[in-house]
TrEMBL record:
GO terms for biological process: lipid biosynthetic process. GO terms for molecular function: catalytic activity. It comes from Corynebacterium kalidii. Residues 62-356 form the Condensation domain. This is Condensation domain-containing protein.
């Protein structure tokens, strides 16, 4: 399992090689007339919907989706794949739930409609254009369902690729990994314990999670762990949201088109040494990763504190294989008190404990409290530097599947990082502004992290 640049997988349908599973007329009619579901959009869904509509109003195509693709042997059996796709969507209420905004106005009220499971009817349809064109109109929040399942015949004639694309309102990175594995298990008829868990008739619903999130947000006060954690971060940064430590070529804060950048951080042998260090010190592997990021920040800027925002999974065991956006943005900050990874581990451990305490407190409620009480400026709701750590080694993929993860390419004013571990080692993926300054800065940053890890 690995992360790739989305441009590296972009077949088109000119040779009849592409098939997408799209809603039948009956399914579309049912979706259009479904009653309003009282479950609100989640906080992250609301931000996403408003951002997509703002881009739509300016004529920009939609690229705010995530994708995963795997290679399967043989020629696709469309009837069997149809059963797999429909069972997959029917099993996840979050995938059957669509968001719309009257008049497509970015500030309009968001309405939810949820299809019953027995109304799901996705049918194989030839694709004549490009995958990118298809995803911009199907893997979007107001298409029912807000996803695309596509197969692409490979040139060898003996295998095909299976793509799952999710609008970001419908899924996160873990949704991509478990969703594709679920589709594969349903298609192949796998019966091992992992496949049985994935192919249950129904999974715990993302809508239940949203309702619980609303309840948790209502209890936030000045002494809540999330409020305290965010207040501490702004104390460290002087009231600013964290940014990338090197120039990104952004002018006047105006976002630019995204470029995907990948860089190795540690090979297989070094990654084994890093894991051994984590075990010896009784910390998680991510603690070692964040220590290296903090040291790189200090080395590049001369600052004695590191601060960033971590995209943290909030699934717990209940929602382990559910489809939805089970994430929170949590503040990570610590003093960089030494010059080696080992030196910094105690500070990172304490910072992660603080971050864990804030995990269940919705970031919008925490920041909203700080803003409304006058403790921070509303500008903190801007676009911070974000870091995501993905341990792809937890997910078993079928032999030969070569599962690849990628995202659509929109616009950004920051250089967000995806640090990922897989069988080949530790790597960095970055979506940065597409300009020479940002490219050079990300390369410098990656080389600095790599040099720090190499000393372990």
């Amino acid at each position: 399992m690995r992360i790739i640049d989305g441009h590296d997988w972009s077949p088109d349908g000119t040779d009849g090689a592409l098939t997408a599973w799209l809603p039948s007329p009956a399914m579309s009619s049912t979706a259009a007339t479904a009653a309003t579901d009282p479950t609100p959009a989640s906080f992250l869904q609301t931000d996403h919907v408003r951002g997509v509509l703002a881009g739509r109003a300016q004529g920009r195509p939609h690229h705010a989706y995530t994708c995963s693709v795997a290679t399967l042997p043989g020629v696709v059996d469309r009837a069997r794949m149809t059963r797999a796709v429909n069972a997959f969507v029917a099993a996840h209420e979050g995938l059957r739930s669509t968001l719309t905004v009257d008049g497509d106005t970015p500030d309009g009220p968001i309405r939810r409609r949820t299809l019953p499971a027995d109304a799901v009817d996705l049918v194989p349809t030839p694709v004549t254009g490009t995958v990118t064109e298809l995803l911009s109109t199907t893997a979007v929040f107001d298409h029912s369902p807000a996803l695309a399942v596509v197969t692409a015949a490979r040139a060898d004639g003996r295998s095909f690729d299976l793509l799952l694309a999710l609008d970001h309102a419908s899924g996160d990175g873990i949704s991509q990994m478990t969703g594709l594995l679920e589709l594969m298990a349903r298609y192949t008829g796998a019966t091992d314990p992992a496949a049985e868990a994935l192919t249950a008739d129904t999974h715990p619903s993302f809508l239940d999670y949203i309702r619980d999130e609303q309840s948790r947000a209502a209890t936030v006060d000045d002494d809540s762990p999330g409020v305290r954690a965010w207040r501490g971060l702004f104390d460290v940064t002087g009231g600013r949201v964290p940014g990338f430590p090197l120039p990104t070529g952004i002018v006047d804060g105006e976002p630019q088109p995204v470029v995907g950048i990948a860089a190795p951080l540690a090979d297989r042998d070094l990654t084994r040494r890093l894991r051994s260090l984590a075990r010896e010190r009784g910390v998680s592997f991510s603690t070692v990763v964040y220590a290296a990021l903090g040291l790189a920040h200090a080395r590049l800027t001369g600052e004695t504190h590191y601060a960033t925002v971590v995209v943290s999974a909030t699934r717990g065991r209940r929602y382990a294989v559910s489809q939805g956006w089970f994430c929170n943005f949590t503040p990570l900050y610590f003093p960089v008190t030494g010059t080696t990874v080992e030196d910094v581990l105690p500070e990172v451990t304490a910072a992660q404990a603080r971050m864990k305490a804030a995990l269940d407190e919705p970031v919008h409620a925490s920041l909203g409290h700080l803003i409304l009480s006058g403790q921070v400026d509303p500008s903190v709701m801007g676009s911070p530097q974000m870091v995501t750590y993905l341990d792809l080694g937890w997910f078993e993929e079928p032999e030969g599947a070569d599962i690849r993860l990628f995202t659509g390419f929109g616009r950004t004013s920051n250089a967000n990082l995806w640090i990922h571990r897989n069988a080949d080692g530790l790597g960095l993926g970055c979506q940065a502004p597409d300009n020479p300054t940002a490219r050079e800065s990300v390369a410098t940053y990656a080389a600095t992290v790599r040099d720090i890890l190499a000393t372990v």
